[in-house]
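Re: the request from the purification team.
They wanted to know what the chain is likely to look like in 3D before they choose a buffer screen. I agreed to run a prediction and write the result into the notebook, where they can find it.
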Amino acid sequence: METNVLEKETRNKLRFVTFIIPKFADAYKMNRQEAYRYLKKYGGLDYLFDHWWALHTDNPFWAIRDIFEVCRRNGGLR
């Protein structure tokens, strides 16, 4: 039973991450690879994985903005 819950949570996390990275890329005029590298370099990806549960309940606009703000604080200049 516990394994199914973990598998479901992992699937949900991956669905959200694969949904939000292209949205982030579109919002900041990047292709998906650039967005992934940018998020990885400036801590956005870690933030996304650590806080996906809260971010997925918000409007994608605000989730993207929060992720961008984390990256900006870590030196990202987009």
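For the purification team: The helical segments are 2-27, 32-41, 44-56, 60-73.
Please add any questions underneath this entry.
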